[in-house]
Structure formats: C-alpha cells, structure tokens
C-alpha cells in the first residue's frame, strides 16, 4: 500500500493504480500514525481522497492548479487539501439540499478559483 503523506505530492499514476478503499485506508493510516484526532475519521479520509483524486487528474481539472496556488500563497500542502476539501464539502451539502439549479460542478470550480489562502485562514479560525 502507498505510504500517504498529505505534505508530499502524490505520484498520480501510483495513486490512481490503488483501489479506492486502499486510498482511504492510506489516508486513515497517516492520520492515525500522526495521532491526529478527527471528529469523523471516515468522512475526513474520504474528503482527502476525493481531493487527491481531483489533483491526480492534472490539468484536466482545477484542483491541481488551485492546490499549487494555495501553496504559493503560504499554505502547506495538507492545509491546501483541507481548504479545497472545505469547498468540496460545502458544495456537496448544497447539492444535497438542492440549492441553486446551476451546474454543481461549474459552481464548485468557480468557488475553487475564488478560494485563497487568506479566505481559508479566516474561515478556519471560525471553526470550519
């Protein structure tokens, strides 16, 4: 199994070669080994995996460029994964509530493109 470390860039080919359950377990193992307590370990790991899956798509999806931009703005890679994950979670909950009516993927990409390190830091100090 791949040794996952959110602070290090993941080899896209190796990541995509893993079964989804192996990806989730590798993220869980990282957090357990580093004694990071989580309110919902499964949801947290799945969010990491979704973001990493999007990053692994390379330039075909916005997540990789946003991750690199957030890091250039001063977030470490793990924080940037969480920042993108927060936008993802917000968008998923909005879709479940059927808010909007526009294409949820387009809205997600738009929100990712507006995301900044500063906006993430402000939101995370509020408990998000």
Task: Characterise the protein shown here.
By secondary structure, the protein is mainly α. It is 68% helix and 0% strand. The protein has seven helices and no strands. Helix 2 packs across helix 3 (41-56). It is globular and about 40 Å long. It starts with 11 loop residues before the first helix and ends with a helix. 24% of the residues are buried. The mean pLDDT is 91.
Structural class: mainly alpha
Low-confidence stretches: none
Number of E-state strands: 0
Shape: globular
Instruction: Quickly count the helices.
Output: 7
Radius of gyration, in angstroms, nearest whole number:
14 Å
Sheet of most strands: none
Helix percent band: 55-70%
User: Which band does the percent of strand residues land in?
Assistant: under 5%
- From the N-terminal CA to the C-terminal CA, the straight-line distance is 31 Å
Average pLDDT confidence is: 91
Order of helices and strands: HHHHHHH
Short summary:
The protein is mainly alpha-helical. The protein contains 7 helices and no strands. The protein is globular, with a radius of gyration of 14 Å.
Main attributes of the structure:
128 residues, mainly alpha, 68% helix
